[in-house]
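Replication initiator protein RepSA
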Amino acid sequence: MSDTATFAGLDPDTLGDLLQVAGAPGFDRWQDQVKRTGGCADPIHLRGWIVHKDKTTGETLHHYSTDNEPGGRLRVACGNRRASRCPACAWTYAGDTFHLIRAGLAGNPDKDIPATVREHPRVFATFTAPSFGPVHNRPDRGVCRCGARHAPEDSALGTPLDPASYDYAAAVLFNNHAGELWVRFVNRLRREIAKRAGLTQRELAEVCRVSYGKVAEFQKRGAVHFHAVIRLDGPDGSDSPPPSWASTDLLTDAIRAAAEHPYTTITVPPNEEAGYVNGWRLRWGRQLDVRPVKAFGDGSEITEQAVASYVAKYATKAAENTGTPDTAVYCRSCRGTGRSRLYDRAGSPLSRCVTCHGTGLGEDLARLDVPDHARRLMAACVELQPLYPDRHLARWAHMLGFRGHFSSKSRRYSTTLGALRQARADYRAAQERGALGLDDVEPDTVLVLADWQYAGHGHTPGESVLAASIARDLQLNRQTAREELAASGGADHA
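Structure:
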């Protein structure tokens, strides 16, 4: 257990619970379970049993039951990707994302991605949102428009200079449509590449493929933007060379043209009754950054290692840096629509959800402990919900309207998160067979019978403090091992 100073300042109830847990007869086994989850902050509790039998003889090779576990439960990791929810599971998710992105840049024979992928044209591009009004910032030169030099952690950064004129509706609608803007961009990018190569769309598909991996990030102003690794391959993906005309310069030029093309625009229709008489034309902002990705160790800032680490870092984040709540705020009864699911008839007062009174919210925004700028963005989602009901804005108000995947990739970019998780599961299964003395038994000759039931989740207050301490110790051990590996010349890890 960590130093007792870690637990200083705890309230008496939490401290009492902590001491009770630490003094319980099954504490060592509880601690072992938590270590196996990596110090998960919100583990899933299971009750049940598993039996390994020999298929031929019917002999029981091993039997396990949770009856002898602390509290009669087995704790398994929650697997949540968000660092604000579970830092331990988010660390695992970030590591998987790191390996996925880096394998698509440097190759990985174990994952059937050849090292020759390094020779393919590839860039790291950042797609930002347009301006919705001037905000407090830290320009490279001079001072903010307000006349001040803001400190890096100044809470005013990202907030509007004039909230009354800031286009909050456009901001949340952009977030809400960002995923569709990306799809339009990718479709247009293929056309731009084909145009520069003098080919038709069909001819391009026969000789070249666009592969990518991307991650979303929220700026302090609450606008989402994308960081993407974009690569040109042959027709079969990473294991086939791109055509001779494919170059980094051609890819860069095509990306800029595709991002600025009128096709890469989404028009949101006006609603004159609500005062939105012009509607919106949503497109990427002018600050498009496209840089070639260099091989590791050449002195460049945009290296394979740096890009993979950067993408992995933001794959575990959401909108929490804008001050929004960590959980959804929509009404569960109507799923944020504000309308009754039992009696939904246009114009009828009975169609209004009786739980939220038609607001679509399960929380009172005025009472939430969030910054005023985040509150206004969330309020804009609620205001626009009845005007554009198919956009589910109230349901995603805690994400400021964004409803897409935080990380995604094209099919042939690299390996998959599922494959990485399966490899980890196979490794742990092999470890388990060794611990059970089943190494010499062919897996195909073993019949596995199991019965598991959900029994809850989470920790008591005292358990939460102990689990956080275990997670910190594990993280410190990993960091030390990584530094030793790097010092010895080994490969770096996320």
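The longest strand covers residues 446-457.
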